[in-house]
């Protein structure tokens, strides 16, 4: 965990960044979904709801991260992922993942991020669902768009030793215009050469950044030792959900899934 003075320093940087930060509205959603255009009535209802309803959970999403995922067990299935996150506490972050950063963006899934301390406390089988962030940070492929370089560096110092558990529920990278199919467990890249150069180049151009420069800027961030159990796919242990068919229980009889 980062010392109290470092946390205070990061907080100051983040507050300053709010005054100058940008980095959104440059990545369109991958798909256009079917459905009628919004009516005037719908627009009025939206405006009223926006003014009158409390959105505390959404207002708490104060962190924007952009990185890349792949389907566990299928590395060729790669995509960019825009994370809008809430810092629940100093050891836990929760994120909604979108396929873009404009108003047309589709919610692709969720990611939970825990500190190394919390990851160590997880059951061994549970750890196999989680991926490390060490390479994403050190390689420069995980970014915090709009933050000043120094503030982003401090944030990455904290994230480098964390672990993420990610499920995508809408596979817009496969041109699916609706959230059909079952959720898929996602993983993060752990070595150079795994992530397609075209994805990095496209992201760099849209954000006006250099991933290579970010890598050099983070050279002084210590590389953590990856905890056993994470990145299980590297050892051939693939975990994915399955859709199964079960008969409905007979009326008047309980259904025990263990029998």
From TrEMBL:
PROSITE patterns assigned to the protein according to its UniProt record, in alphabetical order: PROKAR_LIPOPROTEIN
Alphabetical list of InterPro entries matching this protein: OBAP-like
Pfam family for this entry, one: DUF1264
Chain positions covered by the region annotation Disordered: 212-234
This protein's name: DUF1264 domain-containing protein
Organism in which the protein naturally occurs: Larkinella knui
